[in-house]
């Protein structure tokens, strides 16, 4: 990965942090984004302690603010030249409905709309830097999702898990539409499921007692964040996946997602609606 520049969102902890550490250890220049700048600096320092030669640059990026996404992208494009890998990793699962300063339901914005905007803002640079790769961290949980285009902001009733799984379906549909738009450009787009990983996901705030109990019981069986990062790292760095695009990966292998995630009409519609919502 020497000479490659990688951007990873939500990389101050969990799967993102381990992805950042591994790619930095391979010699990549890693832009580690975090919504809290202090957490970003601490994470970068952690990686440097592990790998003294690591080239890690922490940058602030709060996906719950579309203005932040725009200013981050502008700053990144100005500060750095070629961009070879974008990992849309950040994600939330929230027990209670909230809205962002932009007026969208928070999970929908952080997990889908903001990465959609960020990717589009960086697309020209990724194209110019090809071969380059876009990686979207989705989830097997997408299989339980139902995409309701009439209620993307979950105004008609909110259940944290239901909203979360829907955004993970959005991640795969977005990847599919993106890959088809990027065919022949030297930029690939893939989605993945990291496994069930012991991280902070879903634990901030008041997720259901059922979920919390489930985590307690299954905790010892969950993957470590380092293991959970393996498929992302593979997609970001392996020569074996050069040119592979529009696929969904689990345990470093392409897998078939649910048929609702291969619905090209839904993927196109989601693209159009998202573009309209973020003003692209
Ligand atoms: N853990 C699993 O079992 C599992 C399974 C399937 C898929 N995934 C996916 O894996 C990805 C990484 O999750 P994880 O398990 O590593 O969870 P995590 O430890 O909670 O990490 C999530 C990251 O996203 C960041 N984030 C949250 N809200 C943000 C915002 N508004 N703006 C920018 N960043 C924000 C978090 O920042 P803070 O530290 O500041 O909160 C953190 O850095 C997610 O997309 C998740 O859906 C995880």
Secondary structure elements and pairings:
Blueprint lengths: L4 E4 L5 H12 L3 E6 L2 H14 L4 E6 L5 H14 L5 E4 L17 H23 L3 E6 L22 H23 L4 E7 L15 H10 L6 H4 L1 H8 L10 E3 L2 E3 L8 H15 L2
Parallel strand pairs: 1-2, 1-4, 2-3, 4-5, 5-6, 6-7
Antiparallel strand pairs: 7-8
The protein binds NADP nicotinamide-adenine-dinucleotide phosphate.
Question: Care to describe what's here?
Answer:
There is one protein chain. With 280 residues, this protein is an alpha/beta fold. It has one domain (5-278): NAD(P)-binding Rossmann-like Domain (Rossmann fold). A hairpin with a 2-residue loop joins β7 (248-250) and β8 (253-255). The chain contains nine helices and eight strands. 44% of the residues lie in helices and 14% in strands. The protein has helices spanning 14-25, 37-50, 66-79, 106-128, 160-182, 209-218, 225-228, 230-237, 264-278; strands at residues 5-8, 29-34, 55-60, 85-88, 132-137, 187-193, 248-250, 253-255. α3 runs parallel beside α4 (106-128). Strands 3-2-1-4-5-6-7-8 form an eight-stranded mixed beta sheet, sandwiched between helices. The structure holds NADP nicotinamide-adenine-dinucleotide phosphate. NADP nicotinamide-adenine-dinucleotide phosphate is lined by residues 9-10, 12-16, 34-36, 39, 61-64, 89-92, 110, 137, 139, 193-194, 196-197, 199-201.
């Amino acid at each position: 990965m020497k000479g490659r520049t990688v951007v990873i969102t939500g990389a101050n902890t969990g799967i993102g942090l381990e992805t950042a550490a591994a790619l930095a250890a391979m010699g990549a220049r890693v832009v580690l984004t975090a919504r809290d700048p202090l957490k970003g600096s601490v994470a970068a320092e952690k990686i440097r302690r592990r790998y003294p030669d690591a080239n890690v640059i922490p940058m602030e990026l709060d996906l719950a603010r579309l203005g932040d996404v725009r200013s981050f992208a502008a700053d990144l494009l100005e500060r750095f030249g070629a961009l070879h890998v974008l990992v849309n990793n950040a994600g939330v699962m929230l027990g209670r409905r909230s809205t962002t300063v932009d007026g969208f339901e928070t999970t929908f914005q952080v997990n889908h709309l903001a990465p959609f905007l960020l990717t589009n803002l960086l697309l020209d640079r990724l194209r110019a830097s090809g071969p380059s790769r876009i990686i979207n961290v989705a989830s097997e949980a997408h299989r339980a999702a139902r995409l309701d285009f009439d209620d993307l902001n979950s105004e008609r009733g909110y259940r944290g898990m239901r909203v979360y799984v829907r955004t993970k379906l959005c991640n795969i549909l977005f990847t599919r539409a993106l890959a088809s738009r990027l065919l022949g450009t030297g930029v690939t787009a893939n989605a993945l499921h990291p496994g069930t990983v012991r991280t902070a996901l879903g634990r901030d705030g008041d997720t259901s007692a059922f979920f919390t109990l489930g985590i307690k019981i299954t905790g010892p069986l969950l993957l470590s964040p380092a293991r959970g990062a393996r498929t992302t790292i593979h997609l970001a760095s392996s020569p074996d996946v050069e040119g592979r695009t529009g696929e969904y990966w689990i345990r470093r292998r392409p897998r078939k997602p649910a048929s609702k995630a291969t619905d090209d009409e839904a993927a196109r519609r989601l693209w159009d609606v998202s573009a309209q919502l973020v003003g692209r």
